[in-house]
Design goal:
mainly alpha; 4 helices; about 65% helix; flat
Amino acid sequence: MPEGQPNRTKSASTLQSSNGDNERRLLEERREVIEEIFAQALSGNGSRTSLQDDDYAQLSQIRDLEYSRRESLNRRLRQLDEALGRIHSGLYGICSECGASIAEKRLAADPAVLLCIGCQAMNEAVVREFTL
């Protein structure tokens, strides 16, 4: 069945099983992201102690990379939490823009995805248009 069309041929138990698998994957990835966030917080300034006074440029680059990674992890944690909320509210697997069902293959690739492939493509086209 093409993505974007409601899949009425699946039984409720098949959908619940699929959602259960995705929920387990989301929870596992959430645990991994939280562990990495804590590991970064614990490492803190440890990597900077060996830098000399003349390494300020390097120190700045390290801080920028650490900040970017921390932001990326926090963004992913929010995505995972939102996906778990959608499972519990019964909205999981439904495109947040058009309301169509999201293909199982797409959810298997990234269980936290919000958009069907059609809406994702349109959003990316708009972003490309404004960034050119």
